[in-house]
Amino acid sequence: MSGGREPGVLQPGDLVVARNRKWDGRAHWVVPGRYLGEDIHGWWIFQGKGEFCARPGAAFYTASDALLLVPRTGEYVATFYDDTYPGDFRIYVDLATAHEWKTIRPGVTEFHLIDMDLDVIRSTVRGVFVDDEDEFEEHRIHMGYPGETVSAMRTECAVLLAAVSTMEAPFDVASPGSVSAEWFTKGRA
User: Does residue 156 surpass a pLDDT of 70?
Assistant: First the structure.
């Protein structure tokens, strides 16, 4: 069984289940997808329309395709949406730590992380902004985030905000020729 920042052996088409939890261990989102491949940015997972996603107290079937990027470095994961998404998000970056891949059996892998509340979002309506700063502050106190972790998350958030704002690859959104557009094409093939 694998474990750690890098996955074990993954093949295109393998099931990857992203399991998010909060700092205190509470379950958060569970999102399935199919592994597409890797590039200099990290590992790409296609989350197709109609997939079942859930967290305690909420569940839905996805309304459009999406891509999850698990980066090689950095304390985040990024979800990319294209123009078929009925909402206004195009990029949703979750600040996250403790990335860990776990092979369940050949063809099935889980990806675990701790969601650190802060999100960097590119919206077609609101532009680029940081969301859930109030939740981060509340959890910082109630869940006892260590000072070093708080500082690291704030620094990472600022770096990501700049990268998403300037559309630095891979955050060059799902327009023709962008990094994510190529992965959407592979996912839909």
Answer: yes
